[in-house]
Amino acid sequence: xxxLLQLTVLIPLYNEEESLPELHDWxxxxxxxxxxxxxxxxxxxxxxxxxxxVIERLSAQNPAVRGIRFNRNYGKTMALxxxxxxxRGQVVIxxxxxxxxxxxxxxxxxRMIVEDRYDLVSGWKQKRYDPLTKxxxxxxxxxxxRWISGVQxxxxxxxxxxxxxxxxxxxxxxxxxxMHRNLPIVANWNGxxxxxEKVVQHRARxxxxxKFGLERFVNGFLDVLVIGFVHRFSKRPMHFFGTLGTLSxxxxxxxxxxxxxxxxxxxxxGVKFRNxxxxxxxxxxxxAIILGVQLFLAGFLGEMLVRQSLNKSGELxxxxxxxxxx
Length: 326
Hints:
- There is one protein chain.
- Helices cover 48% and strands 14% of the residues.
- The chain has helices spanning 20-33, 51-61, 76-86, 106-114, 132-149, 165-171, 183-188, 215-233, 237-268, 280-308, and strands at residues 5-13, 38-44, 65-70, 89-94, 120-124, 161-164, 195-199, 318-322.
- α9 packs antiparallel against α10.
């Protein structure tokens, strides 16, 4: 039977060999001061430096340290998904490995989950040590995320978050792509609506360089739209495609009836009339009817796929583990 701990500190990482020993010692000091039963779970997302040997050494020194290493780089979302599935703590706290998140925030985040009964608490880096080229897109991304999702957070992308264990076990199978930026939205749309926020310290990067570029914000916007669509229509695609198809088919039919009626009236009045194909509305109506039929077919195919879909498995290849009994 899996041992249930009070706390899991989950740290996804990629090429952070310099910061890992310092981060480990800082976390251990904080959790020991508060006498938590804990584990530190490192998920190495295919690092090409010495991050994995460092994790192995830390695990040999501290039995509470466990590690998972991917055979290649899959991205932060997959690292979090795999870590969520392996966690044993009643409270799961995620943080980045670059020392920009302070482990001193752990006790208050833990308290908000356990005592205030939040499902999820998201960090808010109110004062950031980032250039304007990074902070401005972040503000725009957060504003759009609030508008689309209805989740009122200032900082969706903060890596420092706390979760009730049931939350991470529920949302882990639904994660893919770059959805780590939108975990509060995924949690909320899975029924975990008590989501809190805590102002946290943002520290300047001490080692190495950032692994993310501006393209992450474009991807983030697209992911919010995908999450919204999947949440509303993944189980009922006909409601989306069928509605659009019906509307398009109706507009095309109205145009067709209009052209036919116009021709019949002209014939009855003995008025010389032009060919239907000379009327631009003929082509608009034809395209609308064809598009309506295609959207309807897409809806039917979507319904069939939903009924026959199976959960994907075996996409990730874990190369090594350390600190696991088996």
